[in-house]
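Milestone M4 deliverable, item 7.
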Amino acid sequence: MKAMWEKAAPVRTDIALEAAEYYTGGRRSSDGIHIEEFYDKDNDILVTKVQVTNEAGQQRLHKPKGTYITLETPHLGEPDEDYHREITGVLMAQLKTLLPGIEKKKILVAGIGNREITPDALGPLTIEHLFITRHLIKAYGQDTEVTKGLGNVSAIAPGVMAQTGMEGREIISGIIKSTAPEVLIVIDALAARSTKRLNRTIQLTDTGIHPGAGVGNYRNELTKDTLGIPVIAIGIPTVIDAATIVSDTMTGMLHVLENQKKLHEIYDAVKDFDEQEKYYLMRELMEPSMADMFVTPKDIDETIGRISYTVSEAINSLCHAV
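Output delivered:
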């Protein structure tokens, strides 16, 4: 069974930093994976850049080549307007580093996800808060009295295939052909490996996204290769695999067993398992109906509302100088 685990896919996560931490044994660079981090003391935000530079790095992380910027913000989900204002500024600055001059381009924003399912509603809710201006620029022109200081922004929440009968890429591709934006910003909810990152982490990447990949629901990718324009993805982890939670609990249990002489046989049997082996052991032991279960925090409704507004304000501030 151990051999099967070694060949299996990594623990489910959409966060490149989590994959890098697992495969490099911490935040260390290795062949094809370059990691830099900076702690913004004033705003209590840890900024980590993971660059996947070659095929070796791509194979190890199961992530496309490109740049992944992670903002670890411990108070992201809390109702602190001042803190969210600071996050907005940092997020806006990091978007500019991914694609210099992005604020001067015609931008299409796509909010991926299901508006009716709260953990998956980040994208659609963010779209609701955006300041949309493409129609104004079409009507009045650029830099007129009405549009001075405004960027060219349009947006779409394409829904999910169960609602529309169409893949998100099909809808977005058609819009791109019709409206000719110069860059696509995609916003989507992600799956995390660690509970400490749920609703506390923002990932930015220039690689686009594979909608639903984090929960095993593979859909057509939204990338420069498939759409023909640069694709910047903004994602926040809102769910975690139930087997991961059980696996983490097992780690805590081992610390208890180590000090219990009567239970040393159990401890000795599993003490040398690494994280991935413990994860797949838990998946084997869980009921089939639970093995594919994902969990989200109980305050997700309020949290998603606050976070979606913060992300929208970063995009508004990026695009509009008013």
